[in-house]
Amino acid sequence: MNRILVASHGKLASGLKSSIELLSGLGEKLSVIDAYIDDTDYTDQIDYFIKQLKHEPGVILTDIKGGSVNQRVVQRLLGQENKNVFVITGVNLPLVMSFVLNKDPVDRNLVDKIVAESKLEVIDWQIPDNTDKSEESNSDFFN
Question: 25: which DSSP letter?
Fold first, then answer.
């Protein structure tokens, strides 16, 4: 089983886990770190996740590129022997869902594929300025 950690500022990580559980029932596949919700140092949680991998592949998803949580994760991975830990930043629900539902072992190609696919899920959904409220008009909305 692929191991996945979501680490974020505040409760974004646990919120994503809650959404994954609601949508798929697979919330248990995620480990989460909700950083800065109290004075607890979360470094040990990062180290524990990395240690649990035992040289197996793993994915760590963080919220903000260059943010303090992302920086701490990267610092903890520097000098590690396990080169199969992938850090991805800019976490969103489609990204997490793709990793959770994936059954293939995590490698560079899979990570690149899932990241590229999740980027397509971020769109500017422009609501048409349409005064026609007919049923036919509404059915075309998602096309």
Answer: S
- The residues, ordered by sequence, that sit 6+ positions from 65 with a Cβ below 8 Å of its Cβ are 89, 90
Question: pTM of the prediction?
Answer: 0.87
By CB atoms closer than 10 A (0-12, 13-18, 19+), residue 12 is buried
Q: With beta carbons less than 8 A apart as the criterion, state whether 99 and 4 touch.
A: yes
DSSP string computed for 62-89: ESSTTSHHHHHHHHHHTT-S---EEEEE
Distance of CA 143 to the CA centre of its chain: 28
Q: What's the domain range around 40?
A: 3-119
**Is 109 inside any structural domain?**
yes
CA distance 89 to 92: 9
Tens-digit pLDDT profile for residues 16-59: 999 999 999 999 999 999 999 999 999 999 999 999 998 899 99
50 located within any domain? yes
Q: Helix 108-119 to helix 93-101 angle, to the nearest 10 degrees?
A: 140
Q: Which two tokens stand for residue 24?
A: 């798929």
Residues 6+ away with beta carbon under 8 Å from 32: 5, 6, 7, 8, 13, 14, 16, 17
